[in-house]
Amino acid sequence: MTRTQFLSYYEKLWEIPPGTLKPENRIDELSDWDSLAVLNTIVLMDRELGINVTGAQLVECRTLGDILNLAGEQLSD
Amino acid sequence: MNCHLAGIAHYLPKRVVTNADLAVQNPGWDADKIFKKTGIRQRHVVSEGETAADLGVRAAERLFDQSGFDRHSIDTLIVGTQSPNYFLPGDSALIQERLGLPTTCAAFDVTLGCSGYTYGLWLARALITSGSSRNVLLVSADTYSCYCDPHDMTTITLFGDAAGATLLTGDPQGARAEIGPTILGTDGRGACNLIVRDGAARWLSRTDAPPRLYMNGPEIVSFTLNSVKAGIDRLLEATGLAWDQVDLFLMHQANRFLLENLRLKMGVDPERLTIDVEQTGNTVNASIPLLISRLIERGQLSGPKTSVLAGFGVGYSWAMSLVKWL
Questions:
Q1: Of B264, B197, B184, which is closest to residue B225 (Cα–Cα)?
Q2: Domains and CATH numbers, chain A
Q3: Residue B91 CA: distances (Å) to CA of A47, B87, B311
Q4: Average pLDDT over all residues of chain B
Q5: Which residue among B19, B135, B282, B285 is the active-site one?
Q6: Domain end among B159, B175, B191
Q7: How many Å apart are CA B5 and CA B30, to the nearest integer?
Q8: Given B221, B264, B265, which is nearest A39 (Cβ)?
Q9: Quick one: B48 and B21 in the same domain?
Q10: What is the ipTM of this complex?
Q11: What's residue B207's pLDDT?
Q12: CA distance B228 to B107
């Protein structure tokens, strides 16, 4: 899976046009980012990439790119 | 001697709190937003002065009425609750007295929540197959609503109150189901993620603080994803069954989001994993018997069927039981 494909999950969740979201987007500037987005991220990382991401790790993320980086090499460019 | 499920009943308190009621108390929220996040439209909650023990007694009386079972034959009462009337004595002594069970009856509380029912099945089966007990009444009751801060939308939206009562017996005559093995697990590292800290021995110095439930949602989701499928894998391996040989997964009814994502992780189609939280919310210890009793009432659960019951949550604690419906 690519980083763009992972971002597309949020685009589908929030019903916004594909390609809108970028890694440099700040989480605190995303109006759709809420507690459900945190839970959906944990679930997606687990289901699609087999990675266990915790709430504590997500709290430290400032941008969407920080979230993508939690997946490391499991996400290609 | 095998362990059989001879009867099951439930009781829901009459008072109902809808999403609209919660939205009125919490600006910025509306009924649809709450439903979208939780899959819950309403939850039954106790009225002033009503407790989990009251709900448990009513569920048990319904069970006796429906089954015609002689309560004087009960030799063991197990009460699963984390919302007891008092620090002590436990609810089991109070319920023994109110139900008029024999004074020769063994009675004890099991202080577990979401895993309480399947732990109860494990205990009852162990007692019956060892010959220690013949007829076990398992009462499962919780009132988590009483622990929720009315303005904490991470908890008040989720939890409802209820009780289940289940009759487990060594007598196969007229049985609805046979109780198979249970696998169990515990991880106390998760204790801090679903907890009522106030009021008990660790917090005696703060007697003016109302005991409030704290829940770390993301950690609970992580725990669930890591533990539930793995626990079911262990049970199926222990019993020599494959996933596609399980007709029904009867899960602790936490909330729609968690159950839907668990279902996807487990690779199970919706017909095999019922989600029934919309009208009742997460009723903790009563969650699985409530689900089963409601399915039976609606004619949606009959044998022969092989089912896995999965309780998981506060502790962290989990237990998965094999139950064959006859």
A1: B264
A2: 3-74 (1.10.1200.10)
A3: 41, 9, 21
A4: 96
A5: B282
A6: B175
A7: 42
A8: B221
A9: yes
A10: 0.90
A11: 64
A12: 30
